[in-house]
Amino acid sequence: MEFARHLSEHPATAERRAEILKDPGFGNYFTDHTVVIDWTEGVGWHDARVEPYGPIALDPAASVLHYGQEIFEGLKAYRHADGSVQTFRAEKNAERLNASARRLALPELPVESFVEAVKLLVQVDEAWVPEGDGEALYLRPFMIATEAFLGVRPSREVSFRVIASPAGNYFGGELHAVPIWLSEHFSRAGHGGTGEAKCGGNYAASLAAQLEAQDHGCAQVLFLDPTDDFAVEELGGMNVFFVLEGNRLVTPRLNGNILHGVTRASVLQIAADLGLSVEERKFTIDEWREAVAQGTLREVFACGTAAVITPVSELRSEEGTMTFPETGADAVWARIREQLLGVQTGAVADPHGWLTKLV
Predict the structure, then answer these.
(1) Rounded distance, CA 229 to CA 287, Å?
(2) 114/92 Cα distance (integer angstroms)
(3) What percent of the chain has pLDDT over 90?
């Protein structure tokens, strides 16, 4: 696919960019450009281009505003010691975008076009890639329905776009264990719904529970499946893992409600490489409580593209608080995180061929 280039006449100054990169936070600032590819029924994907970052002009009747036809992805680009910029498992993100597209009745984008769009944006805005420890350029590809109509059917016009944001620690500051809140009044998704699609509606559905979590001093909210023995599903924005005695790593099985996390899949592979016994299965809140009571629970941690891997210190609920053992550098989560970040940043070998060089 050929991309036209319409570069910004007013990019951020080197001084302003340096000021931002000193403390980028997460999702607060954006690079100078965006990549766009349009789709029209009967024509297919067309008008691929890079253009200045800025507001999107939408008709007030655009389908995305009324019927929520929207999907997105998240991946990171890392600066390596040799000066190159590389991303992690971009093809998996492209495949997941297409899985989400099928569920939301949006057109699929060829995997190679997805990767090419990401590569082009990073090449154009390479100066925005931060170099601090644990920092990266967060990439947000997304697809929205743009046709103006007020009828319930799939949109005949769609826009795929990629934006980028320099990113530090997702939770801010130094890495530390976080408390999470057990949601007992809200569900993130239901069977047969859009739970395993990465669409905005799933995240919107989690926000009321997230506010409840914040009211109880928690960084994230945990959702259960009340139709299946209150089985653990996932957090508002991350997958969850449990380390049990006997070097066993357990995570909820994918059941149609749970997002197919790229980081989740990578954690499972790295854990197997490290010799852990990996279990993807139903894990109920009662089993969790019993493991705590019996002292067989060793660690709890969450993972996702934005936060990478973060240990969990407590599960708070209306019934009380479960506190988990403190862990150090020899913890399972720490060893997996070290290996995962090592591959992503080029500090260790990439045995599974997960990296794609962008610059």
Answers:
(1) 10
(2) 11
(3) 91
Average pLDDT value over all residues in the chain: 95
What are the residues facing 139 on neighbouring strands? 75, 164
In this predicted structure, what is the pLDDT of residue 307? 83
pLDDT tens track for 150-183: 999 999 999 999 999 999 876 666 678 999 999 9
> Which residues, other chains included, contact 320 with Cβ-Cβ below 8 Å and sequence gap of 6+?
none
pTM score above 0.90: yes
Residue 321 carries which side chain, given as an amino acid letter?
A: T
Q: Indicate the pLDDT class of residue 36, thresholds 50, 70 and 90.
A: very high
The residue whose two tokens read 């061929």 is 353
User: pLDDT per residue over 283-335, tens digit each?
Assistant: 999 999 999 999 999 999 999 998 899 999 999 999 999 999 888 889 999 99
Tell me how crowded residue 296 is: count the other CB atoms within 10 A of its CB: 14
Residues 358 and 118: beta-carbon distance below 8 Å: yes
